[in-house]
């Protein structure tokens, strides 16, 4: 039975091939992990090769020996066996065999773990299933890691990250595209492993805002998992189609469109047919069920780069705990899941209605329902705010009061098709707080960047001034000079 769990000859051949042709190690180091090798001495040698690669030193017999001697793990007999093995040029079949044996060993270990948590620790079945699913996901994703990373490993990984960022041409976008340039500049995008909270009072447009982000991501050919607890998948699709085609949502809902709009809709449908968008609109889900579904989906579709939950307070808790404890468990679970899957998870959240009693109704962190744990676990908290929502509400209340008193009502607020909006960054663990100006297009339920407004300008003899400018000297503008520039 044990012979089915390892093949020492294959392990020796792989290590021998690396020693005699070190150029292969770049590819093999990404295909194999240290614990894919069964023999501890083989693990030590492969680990030594990894450290030599990090140090940019030769991966040969002498340097491997020096590395192992320094940590008192050099086995001369094992090294001789490796050097005596025949190196191979086509390593793919050997790697697949070693990986297969390694997977079987991990699965065997998992069966022991299942017995321990089920019988010895007597954990509830739901918790056992969650533990097993996580372990199984880790195994299938080659996500076996040591308890600690040493300093050389961390500095190496950090330098690789910095080099990757430099190769992007100093782009402000590091994480997943939010869909808005100014928000990207302030957040550098939604980072891998981040828990992002988007909060607002009802009717502010938090679902519309996150669908703008979803549309931007799927337009780039990337994948999105969307848990819609509030509305069916068909309604989400209608909103996305409205965003893409600029056809008013109400017209899409009733099919009242011109020929050109029908043509535009057909093109958008064709694009959405190939989009990597996956929606779960079950409506009732707890954190364990969400974890299970998202792990399975991510395993089947590695292209998924972000998950969205609309919205957090609708999620069910586990057991009979107080609601604030259930929300704490959900919030912490989402953060840990984001790190496990290495993708940002965006969760929408409601705000307490108490903020509406304030003169300035712009949200604060303390306005989030069950805010303690959410505020603590989130990496980024964004608030969606539109002042026109409250101005319209106040107008209607004045109209109602005037009618009740038999007085004439004179409107002072004019409804707009496009309203000013703010995205307030209330918390950002690795960046600044502040706000970003957007415009909300009501008929399309779409947020867009503000349109630049050009200010008319006048210049006095600009050609003469330009001719008289010396290199490296910029004249101070006179009081008669105004500059044409876009203002947001």
From TrEMBL:
<dbReference type="GO" id="GO:0043139">
    <property type="term" value="F:5'-3' DNA helicase activity"/>
</dbReference>
<dbReference type="GO" id="GO:0005524">
    <property type="term" value="F:ATP binding"/>
</dbReference>
<keyword id="KW-0347">Helicase</keyword>
<feature type="domain" description="SF4 helicase">
    <location>
        <begin position="169"/>
        <end position="454"/>
    </location>
</feature>
<keyword id="KW-0378">Hydrolase</keyword>
<keyword id="KW-0235">DNA replication</keyword>
<dbReference type="Pfam" id="PF03796">
    <property type="entry name" value="DnaB_C"/>
</dbReference>
<keyword id="KW-0639">Primosome</keyword>
<feature type="region of interest" description="Disordered">
    <location>
        <begin position="465"/>
        <end position="488"/>
    </location>
</feature>
<keyword id="KW-0413">Isomerase</keyword>
<dbReference type="GO" id="GO:1990077">
    <property type="term" value="C:primosome complex"/>
</dbReference>
<dbReference type="InterPro" id="IPR027417">
    <property type="entry name" value="P-loop_NTPase"/>
</dbReference>
<dbReference type="InterPro" id="IPR007692">
    <property type="entry name" value="DNA_helicase_DnaB"/>
</dbReference>
<dbReference type="GO" id="GO:0016887">
    <property type="term" value="F:ATP hydrolysis activity"/>
</dbReference>
<feature type="compositionally biased region" description="Polar residues">
    <location>
        <begin position="475"/>
        <end position="488"/>
    </location>
</feature>
<protein>
    <recommendedName>
        <fullName>Replicative DNA helicase</fullName>
        <ecNumber>5.6.2.3</ecNumber>
    </recommendedName>
</protein>
<dbReference type="Pfam" id="PF00772">
    <property type="entry name" value="DnaB"/>
</dbReference>
<keyword id="KW-0238">DNA-binding</keyword>
<dbReference type="GO" id="GO:0005829">
    <property type="term" value="C:cytosol"/>
</dbReference>
<comment type="function">
    <text>The main replicative DNA helicase, it participates in initiation and elongation during chromosome replication. Travels ahead of the DNA replisome, separating dsDNA into templates for DNA synthesis. A processive ATP-dependent 5'-3' DNA helicase it has DNA-dependent ATPase activity.</text>
</comment>
<keyword id="KW-0067">ATP-binding</keyword>
<dbReference type="InterPro" id="IPR016136">
    <property type="entry name" value="DNA_helicase_N/primase_C"/>
</dbReference>
<dbReference type="InterPro" id="IPR036185">
    <property type="entry name" value="DNA_heli_DnaB-like_N_sf"/>
</dbReference>
<dbReference type="GO" id="GO:0003677">
    <property type="term" value="F:DNA binding"/>
</dbReference>
<comment type="similarity">
    <text>Belongs to the helicase family. DnaB subfamily.</text>
</comment>
<dbReference type="InterPro" id="IPR007693">
    <property type="entry name" value="DNA_helicase_DnaB-like_N"/>
</dbReference>
<dbReference type="InterPro" id="IPR007694">
    <property type="entry name" value="DNA_helicase_DnaB-like_C"/>
</dbReference>
<dbReference type="GO" id="GO:0006269">
    <property type="term" value="P:DNA replication, synthesis of primer"/>
</dbReference>
<keyword id="KW-0547">Nucleotide-binding</keyword>
């Amino acid at each position: 039975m044990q012979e089915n769990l390892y093949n020492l000859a294959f392990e020796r051949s792989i290590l021998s091939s690396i020693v005699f042709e070190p150029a292969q190690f770049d590819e093999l180091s990404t295909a194999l992990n240290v614990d894919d090798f069964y023999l501890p001495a083989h693990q030590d040698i492969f680990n030594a090769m990894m450290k030599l690669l990090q140090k940019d030193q030769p991966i040969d017999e002498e340097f491997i020996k020096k590395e192992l001697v320094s940590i008192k793990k050099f086995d001369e007999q094992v090294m001789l066996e490796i050097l005596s093995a025949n190196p191979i040029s086509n390593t793919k079949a050997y790697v697949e065999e070693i990986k297969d044996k390694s997977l079987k060993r991990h699965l065997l270990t998992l069966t022991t773990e299942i017995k321990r948590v089920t019988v010895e620790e007597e954990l509830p079945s739901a918790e056992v299933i969650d533990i097993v699913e996580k372990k199984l996901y880790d195994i299938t994703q080659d996500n076996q890691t040591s308890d600690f990373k040493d300093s050389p490993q961390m500095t190496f990984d950090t330098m690789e990250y910095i080099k990757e960022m430099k190769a992007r041409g100093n782009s402000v976008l590091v994480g997943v595209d939010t869909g808005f340039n100014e928000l990207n500049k302030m957040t550098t995008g939604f980072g891998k492993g981040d828990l992002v909270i988007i909060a607002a009072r009802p009717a502010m447009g938090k679902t519309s805002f996150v669908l703008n982000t979803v549309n931007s991501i799927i337009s780039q050919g990337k994948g999105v998992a969307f848990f819609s607890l509030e509305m069916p998948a068909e309604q989400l699709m209608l909103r996305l189609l409205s965003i893409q085609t600029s056809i008013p949502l109400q017209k899409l809902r009733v099919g009242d469109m011109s020929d050109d709009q029908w043509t535009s809709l057909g093109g958008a449908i064709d694009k959405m047919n190939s989009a990597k968008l996956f929606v779960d609109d079950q409506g009732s889900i707890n954190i364990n069920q969400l974890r299970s579904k998202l792990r399975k989906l991510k395993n089947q579709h590695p292209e998924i780069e972000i998950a969205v939950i609309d919205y957090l307070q609708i999620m069910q808790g586990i057991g009979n705990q107080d609601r604030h404890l259930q929300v704490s468990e959900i919030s912490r679970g989402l953060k840990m899941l984001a790190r496990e899957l290495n993708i940002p998870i965006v969760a929408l959240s409601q705000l307490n209605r108490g903020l509406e009693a304030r003169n300035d109704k712009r949200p604060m962190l303390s306005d989030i329902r069950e805010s303690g744990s959410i505020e603590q676990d989130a990496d980024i908290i964004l608030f969606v705010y539109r002042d026109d929502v409250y101005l319209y509400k106040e107008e209607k209340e004045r109209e109602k009061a005037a009618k009740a008193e038999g007085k004439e009502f004179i409107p002072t607020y004019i409804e707009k098709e496009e309203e000013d909006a703010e995205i307030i960054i209330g918390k950002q663990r690795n960046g600044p707080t502040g706000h970003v100006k957007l415009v909300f297009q009501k008929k399309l339920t779409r947020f867009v960047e503000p349109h630049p407004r050009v200010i008319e300008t006048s210049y006095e003899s600009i050609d003469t001034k330009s001719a008289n400018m010396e290199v490296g000297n910029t004249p101070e503008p006179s009081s008669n000079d105004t500059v044409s520039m876009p203002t947001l």
